[in-house]
Amino acid sequence: MNNKTKVATLSVISNSVLIAMKLFVGIITGSVSILSEAIHSSMDLVAAIIAFFSVRISDRPADVNHPYGHGKVENISGVIESLLIFIASIWIIFESVKKIMYPSEEIESFALGFIVMFISAAVNFVVSKKLYKVAKQEDSVALEADALHLKTDVYTALGVGVGLLLIWITKLNFLDPVVAILVALFILKEAFELLKSAFNPLLDFKLSDKEIQNIEEAISKHSSVYCDFHNLRTRKSGNVKYIDLHLVVPENMSVKSAHDICDIIEADLENSLKNTEVMIHLESCTNHCGDCQYLNKEHCKHN
Q1: Is there a smaller number of Cβ atoms within 10 Å at the N or the C end of the chain?
Q2: Buried b (16+ CB within 10 A) or exposed e, 51-62
Q3: Contact 22, 29 (CB under 8 A)
C-alpha cells in the first residue's frame, strides 16, 4: 500500500469515528450546529471514500484505452467532492433557517458538545496535515480535496464549539442555528475554490504562471545552442504535467545534435517540475542569415 492509499484509508477511518460521535452528541444535546457538523463529516466520509478509490485508479499505468494514463480520475473526484460540499452546505442553511423560524427545545449538555467539537477539530487537524503533506509530495488533487474537506471541518468544529460556549454564557439559543449558517457559508466558499482547482485540468487549463516561468527559464538556460522556441503549451492530468513546444535550431545543425539538445532540455524540465512529460517539435531556422552559428542567433530572434 503506497503513501497515497495509506493516508486516504486514515481519512476514511477518522471520519467514520467522528460522524458517530457527532450524531450521538447532536441527538443528546439537540444542537442543530452539532448535527450540521455530523452531516458535514458525512460528506467528508463520502469524499474520503471517493479519494481512496480515485488515487488507486489514477496510479494505474497507461494502457491501450487510456494512452495518457488515468490521472484525470483525481480531478473528477475533486469535482464530485466539491459538489457534495455544496449540497451539504445548502442543507445546513435550510435546516438552520427552519430552526430560527420554529425554535424547538433548548440545548442541553453544553460541556459534552464542546468537548466533542474540540476532539473533532484536533483529529481533523492532524489528519488534514498528513493529507496535505502527501498531496504535496505526490501532487494529488484528490488528496488535496480530501485535506480541504478536513481543514474546513477543523474551522467549523471550532466555530460550533465557540457557539455552544456563547449560548451557555448568554442563554441565547438562537445563536446555535446562526453559527450553523455561518459555518455553511464558510464551507461554500471553500467548496468554490476546490471546484475551480479540480475542474480546470479537465478543460486542459494551462499550468500556473509560476510553473510556466520555471519552464521558460529552464529552456532559456540552453539558449546558446538553439535559435528560438515558441508554441509553448501546458496542461495537467492528475499529478502529471504535460509540456510541448517548438524548438527552432540552426539550419546546419545535425539531427543528432538537435536530438541531444532536446534530451538535455527535457531532462532539465523533468528535474525542475516533478511528474512531467515533455514533447519537443524541432524546426529548422528559415531566415537564411548566413552560416548560422550557435552563438549568433540575434537575427533568428526576429522571426
Answers
A1: N
A2: bbebbbebbeee
A3: no
Question: What grid cell was written down for 116?
Answer: 466533542
% residues pLDDT > 90 (the chain): 8
CA atoms within 13 A on the CB side of 251: 9
How confident is the model over 11-67, as pLDDT tens digits?
A: 888 888 888 888 888 888 777 767 777 777 777 787 788 878 887 887 787 777 777
Please state, in angstroms and as integers, the Cα–Cα distance from residue 45 to each residue in 10, 84, 149, 247, following that order.
Answer: 11, 11, 9, 48
- Torsion from C-alpha of 81, 83, 88, 92, nearest 10 degrees: 140
Residue type for 164, please? Answer: L
Sheet holding 240-249, edge to edge: 228-237, 240-249, 276-284
Asked if the 209-302 domain carries CATH number 3.30.70.1350, the reply is yes
Separation of alpha carbons 190 and 212, rounded Å: 26
- Which residue matches cell numbers 493516508? 7
C-alpha cell at 121: 477539530
Whole-number Å distance between alpha carbons of 242 and 189:
30
The predicted-structure confidence for 221-274, as pLDDT tens digits, reads as follows 888 888 888 899 998 877 788 899 999 988 888 889 999 999 999 998 988 887
The residues spanned by each domain of the chain are 3-203, 209-302
Quote the CA–CA distance of 87 and 289 in Å, as a whole number. 64
Q: Which numeric CATH code is attached to 3-203?
A: 1.20.1510.10
Among 186, 213, 86, 79, smallest CA distance to 141 is for 79
Domains 3-203 and 209-302 share a fold: no
